[in-house]
Amino acid sequence: MKRIVIFGGTSAIAECAARLWVARGCSVFLVGRNAEKVEAICDDLRVRAGPSQKIGSAVADLNDHEKHAALVKSAEDELGGLDVALIAHGSLPNQTECEKSVAQTLAEINTNALSVLSLLTVMANYFEPRGNGAIVAISSVAGDRGRKSNYVYGAAKGLVTLFMQGLRNRLAAKGVVVVTIKPGFVDTPMTKDFEKKGFLWAKPETIAAGIVQAEERRSDVVYLPWFWRYIMLIIRHIPERIFKRLSL
């Protein structure tokens, strides 16, 4: 039975992933910022869980890096150890507002990159001496190439992706799996202001199923849905002299 800590446990994708893991007999510890929502999701998971499964939670602002180690310790104590960590928190910045404000830009970089890097480091240092474990973090296809429509978000996710490449290289010989998840467009509350039409948009349940499968397969980098790998392959290889004239 796997013991899983989920940071950003109230996000739509994380909630769906938690349900899938509980259905597989896993124990889960959720960390989220909204106490009422954390408790509601945990109540739902307890109904779904068997008598031997444990469901725990903590309320925290993950932008407070100093609390990350203590949160991991709480999850470990509650579940009796940890086997998997999913880092799923984040925000979707307003690009125009970020362009006008250095403070806003840095705040979004902190939420979407620096807080993730802190958790990745804490979890790496937890699993490495144990010689096992899996660290899964949600990055984005937006991090594959900077575009004027969302380059603050893309820069943050690009930092996460590159950091995880190095972390994967560091931990490969130590028995610790590092899985980078790169979703495309996902129909969640975070994208409520977008026009959601066409096959490019995925449901959070689809992304969650891909995350659970990627962890089970001990994958390295997974685009979700799969076709984004080829879309981004094309976008990455457009010459800069052409790309800078495009409206993307």
Task: Name the features.
9 helices, Rossmann fold, alpha/beta, 16% strand, two-stranded parallel ribbon, 48% helix, 248 residues
What is the fold's blueprint, element by element?
Elements: E1 3-7, H1 12-23, E2 27-32, H2 35-48, E3 55-59, H3 68-79, E4 84-87, H4 95-100, H5 102-127, E5 134-138, H6 151-171, E6 177-183, E7 185-186, E8 201-202, H7 204-217, E9 221-224, H8 228-236, H9 240-243
Parallel strand pairs: 1-2, 1-4, 2-3, 4-5, 5-6, 6-9, 7-8
Short description:
The protein has helices at 12-23, 35-48, 68-79, 95-100, 102-127, 151-171, 204-217, 228-236, 240-243; strands at 3-7, 27-32, 55-59, 84-87, 134-138, 177-183, 185-186, 201-202, 221-224.
Overall tally of structural domains: 1
Give the low-confidence spans: none
- Estimate the strand proportion: 15-25%
Overall body shape:
globular
Order of helices and strands: EHEHEHEHHEHEEEHEHH
Number of DSSP strand runs: 9
CATH fold node name: Rossmann fold
Q: Architecture, according to CATH?
A: 3-Layer(aba) Sandwich
**N-to-C span:** 44 Å
Largest sheet: 7 strands, parallel
> pLDDT average, as an integer?
96
The helix/strand class is alpha/beta
Strand order of the largest sheet: 3-2-1-4-5-6-9
Can you give the helix content as a percent range?
Answer: 40-55%
**Which CATH class applies here?**
Alpha Beta
CATH H-level superfamily title = NAD(P)-binding Rossmann-like Domain
Number of distinct helices: 9
